[in-house]
Design goal:
Structural class of chain A: alpha/beta
Largest sheet of chain B: 5 strands, antiparallel
Largest interface: A-B, 25 and 28 residues
Helix content of chain A: 40-55%
Number of strands of chain B: 5
Distance between the termini of chain B: 28 Å
Strand order of the largest sheet of chain B: 4-3-2-1-5
Distance between the termini of chain A: 23 Å
Radius of gyration of chain A: 13 Å
Shape of chain B: elongated
Oligomer: heterodimer
Strand content of chain B: 5-15%
């Protein structure tokens, strides 16, 4: 990804390295976004404060701090409370999607998902900003 | 560190009618088990693809509100129990009981408590179906809308009730283990809820919830600044960080033959150093 023009900065958070790499590649190449990544909730909180992304794509199931608690903490911090969060979840953990909505996540997406579906959600949320 | 002064004060509310006839105090265990049995039966019928009878739910909540209201704080302690099997069932019971307790603290009338309890039960219950999330969510909204229309509930009441249910749902879920994740400590969850309240939750309701759940919930174990280990036995609503405790283990790590009762609100030299995840050996 060139340093020049990009449509927005997205923080992708997932403990699975393959998912981080795949999503990053798709968002950069197909979406034209600048992508930074984190491998857990604690790192995500630090990176969100340091890099002020336009949107955060957050896996719900992660060791230490899961996606729900991470979202809650993002919404509780002055610097990050207005950043829209999309929760990524597997079908088994779909109960967590109700919680995601309660804690202020803007949207959710169920894994595995198509790039087009994700890009549509991201574009819709960023156009509201 | 949690700063209670950060929480906005609740908007003044007109006094609401209190239940005129106070039910006699009931054993919390009996009340909890009856609620669990009812919800299990509903789940069983749902698994047999039988229609959910909203009126039946209302009748049950109508009968249960009095006992839940008059049961002592032990019923809140019972909602902290560990469960993995039938977790959706116990989650539904807990969310309903806790929502009713919050409504009581907000001085809701008997009728309002019934409506709040039924909304809580429908919210948790209809989130537990086998369909995909989208279908589940549509069904939840449909049930809740039917209930709101049938009861002719006012928009303000519905909004406040759904705010209570959302916070209780988050608190209950995150403080309980799931097969796919660990639980969080109550104080961690409450702290996160408090900090996010400005952006996500109703701060007035969050304040009421802290009064009920306490940073250190009933039955939880804590370490004091003296290194003694104690169990929280009573919450001091005016001093949420200073509950009444029973000291079980002395500062050298020896279990006491007889527990020592201490009210931390009147022993200012003592304070809670940290909550403990598990009970002492």
């Amino acid at each position: 990804m060139k340093e020049s023009y990009h449509k927005g900065k997205i923080l992708v958070v997932d403990d699975d390295e393959n998912i981080r790499k795949t999503v990053k590649l798709r968002l950069e190449e197909a979406g034209g976004y600048q992508v930074i990544t984190a491998s857990n909730g604690v790192e995500a909180l630090q990176m969100a404060k340091a890099h002020n992304p336009d949107l955060i794509l957050l896996n719900v199931m992660m060791p230490k701090l899961n996606g729900i608690m991470t979202t809650l903490r993002l919404k509780g911090a002055e610097q990050t409370k207005s950043i829209p969060v999309i929760i990524m979840t597997g079908i088994k953990e779909r109960d967590e999607m109700v919680l995601a909505r309660h804690v202020g996540a803007a949207d959710y997406i169920i894994k595995p998902f198509e790039s087009a579906e994700l890009l549509k959600k991201i574009e819709r949320l960023l156009s509201k900003k | 560190m949690v700063y209670f002064s950060d929480i906005d004060k609740a908007k003044d509310k007109p006094p609401k009618e209190l239940p005129k006839e106070k039910a006699p105090a009931l054993d919390a265990g009996v009340v909890y088990n009856e609620a669990a049995a009812f919800v299990k039966e509903i789940f069983q019928r749902r698994s047999e693809k039988k229609e959910l009878d909203i009126e039946e739910v209302c009748r049950f909540i109508g009968k249960a509100v009095g006992p839940i209201a008059s049961a002592d704080d032990k019923i809140i302690f019972l909602t902290t129990g560990t469960y993995l099997k039938e977790y959706l069932c116990y989650h539904t019971v807990n969310v309903t009981i806790l929502a009713i307790k919050v409504g009581l603290n907000l001085k809701y009338s008997s009728e309002q408590l019934v409506n709040l309890g039924a909304l809580a039960l429908l919210h948790a219950l209809t989130g537990a179906e086998d369909e995909g999330y989208g279908a589940q969510e549509l069904q939840r909204q449909e049930f809740i809308q039917k209930f709101i229309q049938a009861r002719q509930l006012k928009e303000g009441f519905v909004k406040e009730s759904l705010s209570i249910i959302a916070i209780v749902d988050v608190y209950e879920s995150l403080t309980h283990m799931r097969s796919y994740r660990q639980r969080f400590m109550p104080h961690e969850v409450l702290k996160a809820i408090i900090l996010a309240s400005e952006k996500v939750f109703n701060p007035g309701i969050v304040k009421k919830i802290i009064e009920i759940f306490s940073i250190y919930p009933l039955g939880s174990f804590v370490r004091l600044n003296t290194e003694e280990v104690a169990q929280v036995v009573r919450i001091n609503k005016d001093f949420p960080l200073r509950p009444q405790v029973d000291i079980l283990i002395d500062s050298r790590g020896k279990r006491l033959k007889e527990k020592k009762a201490v009210d931390l609100s009147s022993h200012l030299n003592l304070y809670i150093k940290e909550p403990l995840l598990e009970s002492p050996p």
